[in-house]
TrEMBL record:
Domain Glycosyltransferase N-terminal span(s) in chain numbering: 16-229
Keywords: Glycosyltransferase, Transferase
Family under the similarity heading: Belongs to the UDP-glycosyltransferase family.
Protein name: UDP-glucuronosyl/UDP-glucosyltransferase
GO terms assigned for molecular function: quercetin 3-O-glucosyltransferase activity; quercetin 7-O-glucosyltransferase activity
Keyword tRNA processing appears in the UniProt entry: no
Superkingdom of the organism of origin: Eukaryota
Amino acid sequence: LILNTFEEIEANMPHILIFPFPAQGHIKPMLCLAELLCQAGLQVTFLNTRHNHRRLNKLQDFSTRFPTLHFESISDGLPEDHPRNLLHFMDLVNSIKTVTKSLFRDLLISLSHKSDVPPVSCIIADGIMSFAIDVAEKMQIKVIIFRTISACCLWSYLCVPKFIDQHDRPYSFGSKQLEDPNFQFFVKETQVVTRASAVILNTFDTLESPVLSQMSPFLPKIYTIGPLHALWKTRIGNSSQLSSSDSNLREANSACMTWLDLQPLKSVIYVSFGSYLVLKGEELLEFWHGLKSSDKPFLWVLRQDNNNTISKELGFTLGTMGNGFIIDWAPQEEVLAHKSVGGFLTHCGWNSSLESMVAGVPMICWPKLPDQLVNSKWMSEVWKIGIDMKDICDRTTVEKMVRALMEDGDQRQEIMRSVDRNSKLASESVSHGGSSFINLDMLIEEIKT
Ligand code: UDX
């Protein structure tokens, strides 16, 4: 009888399908949201590409903790051994537009014929997969867009066509950027946001209120529910051995935590350029020499898919090297929260930026992708929680920046004041009664109705 009742309840719950772009920085916040929606009693199908689905290793823990969370996977259309980093970004984009789009439609149809789940009533689609909106509109399913970038970046992308019409360019982007097919893709995809019923942003009001109020008249209802990894901690916590990082597609090296335990308080600079940037050999060398000459202990994530051959030829090995410790993949949230970590040399990916803000760690920003360029500018000029290295990459600059951030001078003290204030605001936004906490409840209400 109890089983029947549970099945009946499940059959009447709203059914949401969440579909992230197949990359680490997109899967992580969207899976955090999926868990939060299940926690609130909704039924969620989380759709991954097959390539990424195979790399999630906590599936059993997810289903134990969240019985209404289901996973589905479809092909991204690329051969299994095809690289899926930044150098091959457009291959992935073109392939999912052609192959994955029709598989997505087929999946929605098959879900609508299942007897044990209600048909999908709402799709939360990644904002750089406009084909999901096309499919949903044809099938008359409500769509909410999730953008994994900052509000300031979303606003910049939205403004680009206007700037181009006026023969001008937004100040964060160089003219080289405007010709880049990756950049054009991001800008074009962004324009579809107005077709959604609502927009979810992984940010918090007190961080980006001026830009949020500027763009809200042009967009559907915006739900700011970030930093999602921190909201996840408030509302779900460390239950059933799950953590907000369980969407990681790579296995983290936990030996670095023991190494960190041995370092003095706030002495370590953590270095990571995210999940899919690929550095050139000469860039690796400049960072290496700069870090070495800074004389500060450093923990460096050198992904093995990052020019593996070049990094081996240059003599990089995993483990201790000079004053540093090199690893393939870090338990980043734990690293940033460690008492020995005093700074973060980052590419300014939005997840990394939020994780650093929450942990109260100041940043040196070395941005590459368009969204990172905007974040980096805001970090240094608006929020004043980091130093912008722009695209400069030479050993002298690296050494100078690391010293400026890590040594206890005027610059560090000033940055730390903003960092501490910002970290407090981030925590408040995800606490009971905070803006992101409340906005999540409002989003759940909108989905339910
Ligand atoms: C890119 C974009 O730059 C980003 O702004 C966009 O929103 C998503 O795509 P990515 O290179 O993946 O992102 O960086 P980031 O957004 O910072 O996400 C990386 C994630 O991987 C973070 O959540 C970080 O904690 C995690 N990570 C990274 C690890 O867990 N271990 C590592 O060693 C490195």
